[in-house]
Amino acid sequence: MAALVVGVLVLAAVGGWLLLRDTDPPPLSGSPAAKPAAAFVDSVGVNVHVTYYDTAYARFDEWLARLRELGVRHVRDGLVFGAPPYAQRMRRLAAAGLRVSLIVDEEQGTPAESVALAAGPIRPAVETLEGPNEPDIDPGVDWEPVLRRFMPDLRRAVDAEFGNAVPLLAPSFTQASSREAVDDMAGLWDYENIHPYPGGGPPEPPDRGPGGSRRVMATETGYHNAMRATEGQPAVSEGVAGAYVPRLYAENFASGVSRTFIYELIDEKPDTALTNAEQHFGLLRNDLTPKPAFRALKNLLATISASPGEGPSRGVDVRNTDAALARLLLERNDGSRVLLLWRRLPLWDTERRRSIEQDVEPVELRFADTAQDIELSYPSRSAKRTARPDADRVRVLVGGDVAAVSFR
Question: Block means of pLDDT (10 residues each) for the chain, length 408 residues?
Fold first, then answer.
């Protein structure tokens, strides 16, 4: 990213900090309201495939260790009948502190049979159940009559077995018109279910679908890195996905999406030609080595969770006139805070398949009184956090990736 000149004043950057000069600050952009940091961490999920035994998911012990390294607590998978290792692995996920959102497929069993399976040996892992996954993906299938029979039966079975303990998610769809066609059934589920894939573009803002005031989960979204693919969604480079993924989670959470599950944890099968998009959605490569997006998400969650100590819920004003600037203020349980800043800029040209260089922008932060333990990090770039002395105002450089300012 290019160096930035403001008027005739060159701002010296030290680890992303800008040295303050006695100049008039830009007009106030606003003081964001804080959201719970714990809720943000709890909103992060990842799709997995426990029973894909002919793929990299066969290496269960290794990818479970990667999940724990990542710091994610929620995964999504299908409800599977007749696979003994499946129940064992679900219990191991639960023992590792992970909970699962399970897709109930109308082709596998009746709603009562599916709910009975969820309430059986895998019960410790079960967090939510959801309706069928993208039943409208095949235009030749008349899915709506089937869904109208299936979902009321699933609702009754969930209520009878779990009461309010296990929420039911709506079916997911590939077309907005499909969601609208069954909007009259929305009383049957506890959460709307969306798949807001950005199609290789910036992740904001997510389409919450009909009934914007309803609770929503995004059970699939993400980016693939099949750079020579000619079908499906446009690809992005691994590096650009590493910048976009933290923005994706931040944008969804800021817009009120309760939980977002990125698709997916692992590139399932080898594809050295980079032509098969379905084999390159992972945060991990097929050999289970981390991509930049894995490291970026890991760094982001660690930064948000790492408190410097008890704080006074200190206010912070963000001063900048850039319409592209976005911010999310998170408060930890002890009153310390972390402010996420990014600019809603495209970082990838999907047609030319190359990066778009964007200038950074100085953003001034003014704290209520003197803030302590101020640290700046860029999770998409490294795990490093740069400290600076206590201050009542600072300036930071903000580009198209997330900048995180922690303080108390």
Answer: 31 49 48 93 98 97 98 98 92 98 93 97 97 94 96 98 97 95 96 97 84 87 97 96 98 96 98 98 98 98 97 95 94 98 97 95 95 98 96 97 98
CA 276/CA 82 separation, integer angstroms: 30
**CATH 3.20.20.80 segments of the chain:** 36-302
Among the four given CATH numbers 1.10.10, 2.60.40, 1.20.120, 3.40.50, the one describing domain 5-30+308-407: 2.60.40
Q: Is 130 helix (H, G, I), strand (E, B) or coil?
A: strand
| pTM for this entry | 0.93
Rounded to whole angstroms, the Cα distance separating 243 from 382 reads 11
Say which amino acid occupies 24.
D
How far apart CA 341 and CA 320 sit, in angstroms, is: 11
Q: Is 299 helix (H, G, I), strand (E, B) or coil?
A: helix
CB 278 within 8 A of CB 268: yes
Could you give the angle at which helices 292-305 and 238-254 cross, rounded to 10 degrees? 40
Task: Collect all residues with Cβ–Cβ distance below 8 Å to 284 and sequence separation of at least 6.
Answer: 56, 63, 66, 265, 266, 267, 290, 291, 294
279 CB-near residues (< 8 Å, 6+ apart) = 226, 267, 268, 269, 270, 271, 286
Q: Enumerate the CATH 2.60.40 domain ranges in the chain, comma separated.
A: 5-30+308-407
Topology classification of domain 36-302 = TIM Barrel (3.20.20)
- Given a contact cutoff of 8 angstroms between Cβ atoms, the answer to whether 186 and 212 are in contact is no
Residue 144 dihedral angles phi and psi, to the nearest 5°: -65, -45
Q: Could you tell me the CA-to-CA distances from 244 to 205, 297, 333, 342 in Å, in that order? A: 12, 10, 27, 10
Angstrom distance (rounded) from CA 362 to CA 352 = 29
Are 15 and 376 in contact by the 8 Å Cβ rule? The answer is yes
How far is 370 from 368, CA to CA, in rounded Å?
A: 7
